Predict the 3D structure of the following.
Amino acid sequence: MESIANKPFGLLVIGSGPAGVHAAASYVEAGGPGRVCLVSDDADAPYERPPLSKTVLAGEEPAEGSPILDDDSVWSRIDRRLGTYVEALDTDRRQVRTSQGDELSYDRLIVATGSRPSALPGADPDSRVFTLRSLEHARSLVDAVEGARSVVVVGSGFIGCEAAASLASRGLRPILVTPEPVPQAARLGDWVGSRITEWLESAGVELRPGVKVDKVEQPASVHLEDGSVIEADLVLAAVGVTQSQGFLAESGLLVEDDHLAVDAQLRTSDPHVWAAGDVARARHAVLGRSLSVEHWGDAITMGQLAGSNAAAQGPDGSGSSAEWTDPPGFWSEIGGHTLKYSAWGDGFEQFRVVEHPDEAFTVWYADAGGEVVGVLTHERDEDYERGTELLSRRASLTEALGDSAPEKSS
Ligand SMILES: Cc1cc2nc3c(=O)[nH]c(=O)nc-3n(C[C@H](O)[C@H](O)[C@H](O)COP(=O)(O)OP(=O)(O)OC[C@H]3O[C@@H](n4cnc5c(N)ncnc54)[C@H](O)[C@@H]3O)c2cc1C
């Protein structure tokens, strides 16, 4: 095996999503020692994913990719190896091996390998089933959609809902198939699911709720468990993501639920390795328990934290480290409607809906003890800001509701 790096990199980062790019940049900005190298199997220069299911799929902007980092003065100091897949990690030798057979040595490593789309069970591998994670996926999907008349979207998570609404705005009439009674019922509750249903329907999406896909046959015949068959030109599978990767499972690093387990300083079970973004299951310093989140802004925050903590670590492992304290947050745009959601993300026992003029609303989520565990807003940014502050203080639902008269509850 050829060794192309006899001298270890001060920092090696795996992944060119927001966590990896911001980890590398903040290490450089914090004056971390040694050369910095970022390796990613994505061949495109780092780009923003959120527009892919929104403006790009809607045809409002080309599938070219908006850059994650504009700052050339930082970016030019990072050795980038794009289109390079990491297939093995040896934490004893502090080396990774790439699919080209190269070995890269490091003093410090940040794993930011994110998520990959889950495959649709029962789909013939030669059928026209697409997924949407990367810019390359978006290009293929946009090409396929150009000549299509009918498309089935499977899954009513945020990506499925956003994509279905975007495809509808291109003039298609997408059919969205989901086992949920209404979109996002488990995550956000039935009341919010019903609002999303209305938005999707008025955008031109047809919903098939409460039914699973049994199989997809070539070219794109979607067989549902209720016995019906939808003949489509193509299928977009938005059925969730996985963080699982063979090289992580075999690395000896502590893995929990397919994520890399890290402490509140984002350090893994190995003192030379940190993890950030979707791949990490991190202990939250305020909450006192571990969370895994799949949000763009949190990936940036965690990447910056991992990069500056890695830069601060001395050769003997000493050095001051900061902790992950921000409540996780997410936003979504479905058919022109924006939702902002901040929550610990591990469930709720009760919720209260407060409706405001002009169809704006706020939903407060709480645990069984009445502590606020999430807030969701539509056109009510002040409640979103207040909600993140209440989450940070672990405040009660009673305080969150204040004088407002809740109109719906569960
Ligand atoms: C279409 C779409 C729309 C979204 N919209 C929103 C939104 O509106 N709001 C929001 O908060 N979040 C949104 N998200 C989620 C958000 O994009 C993710 O949470 C975020 O990208 C996670 O960042 P990350 O850096 O942890 O991982 P990723 O962005 O997944 O990046 C991981 C990187 O690691 C690379 N990699 C993986 N394995 C290897 C390997 N073995 N070797 C080398 N490289 C590897 C990948 O190629 C990739 O570059 C959206 C996601 C998608 C797909």
